DNA sequence: ATGAAAGCGCTAACAC
DNA sequence: GTGTTAGCGCTTTCAT
């Protein structure tokens, strides 16, 4: 026997095709019909066909999540949260890589194939073409990141500036006066805004010495290489370094260890994103929490809301930052794991 | 204007609908027709509809990857590799959680909705119902893990036994005689086979003292808790502990640090999976590499091959293990990062 | 090489 | 409440 279709079920149940569809989908139908159809469907092992239903309803039950690198823990954490929110509404999640700027635009254009009902996108670089494509898209999209003011697209933003300010403040309180910022690629959204936050926070005080360095990528390896170069180039040692993200921060800690520098006494290190890596490193990495899981959740909720009502005015949600202090900036708790107390990272 | 369909393109190009389809899909068509159709499609911004095409062709261009927890780095690494292999063939990747055993079976049954062309599944627990569902599935599936002998399903297996033997051998060479195994849930595939490997490796020598403990989950937290309990219960200290995976291994290192035990001198620790976490911890975590990325790649290749030719006899591929030695078992390299030398983890 | 027409499996008007 | 029918957008016979 081939595929069991709704027609087979209808015949078996002795009712019309339409009634079968209605009964199966909880539309108006008499109890008797529902019963007959249910039984017939169960006997035949009927399973509705996605493609046929999608063609008819113009809905797929799928959402896409697109990021530059699914290997980065911060995206993994977002994805996990997004998956759990949308799965509760019976949506499946399709993962895509954004690739370069052109590929990202292609990805957005491709939405018009109708293979998903919505998109959550966290682009590393935002181009005009991307904004245009997003605004023109018939498929709802929400962006985790920063778009130009007035872009007609739902966005969920982190408060990078505020977050970095928390880090600077914390370091200064701990006695640091010479503070460096180790950026990633400066032409990216995180690179730009996190750096800007650093500049502003430093400018608000006049007793700080600061400088910026930059890693070629948002990875441990690139962080290690850039930190090594930084150590070579600086005449006087830095009191502290703020990394553009946790991966780069870990790279800095490795480089420091290689030089025989002790963290935090010789050098304090702060990461950004507060990923689970911060608790694996030793000492633990103090990190700015930009609310990745909350941003993921918010993005999913915004998307679901927009799909519900496409006429909604575009919204921009900003998630507040916080600072998670660990051993990389304060000597006390460095040898005692937080697992001892049973407290976890905020979820 | 609404959706641009192939009919619009046909009209614009002045040829029939059928010719338009053929021209667009590289079927037989005169150069002139192709040219006209191409131009018309470009002018109108035609984008083919996925659902309609899928309904007709019975293909979706999608593959599913299902695991227990997309947060576990080992699955992330597999997913990354799988995505890159299948994206090269223009497949999209749908991620799903396996959930409990029943949910896993439901997931496999649901394949018959036809929303994907194939599935890569890495189940934590394998039930008879799951094997039956897999064998009955009309949609090709490949399992990363262990199935009962003779199951008619493509599988990619790790050599857990061989891998754990490498770890034991390495520890013994380093002078360890009292070696514990810290398992995860014993009723899971990894729990069962990794433990079995330990038992066999230990049994092959008569100069070892050993014992098994077990964490409630494959996580850092559970590893920490179980290691703490282990430290409490053991009369004499262990020379070394082999963890069921890297996460549990990291948990052990945390617990050791909390007790004031120095790794590797007081206690050597070995993880399994050789995830990127092994390079974040300090000292680096020696780990058994079970070839997660290779398994991912192999699984993707097997799946693509089976979709190409469904008549293929089921295959079982076994990926060889290796051991990656780091500071958690040997004192020398513990303070110098591997990033100094520029060498990376095997890919 | 091209066109006419059927039909993939389903849902949604519409009439009863 | 139920049945008949049209049609979602596309690919693929089957003629020509």
From TrEMBL, chains A, B:
It comes from the Bacteria. GO terms for molecular function: DNA-binding transcription factor activity; transcription cis-regulatory region binding. Gene3D superfamilies: 3.40.50.2300, lambda repressor-like DNA-binding domains. Residues 315-347 are annotated as: Disordered. Transmembrane segments: none annotated. Keywords: DNA-binding, Transcription, Transcription regulation. Residues 4-57 form the HTH lacI-type domain. Residues 325-338 have a biased composition (Polar residues). It holds the Pfam family Peripla_BP_3. InterPro entries: HTH_LacI (IPR000843), LacI/GalR-like_sensor (IPR046335), Lambda_DNA-bd_dom_sf (IPR010982), Peripla_BP_I (IPR028082). This is LacI family DNA-binding transcriptional regulator. It comes from Ruania alkalisoli.
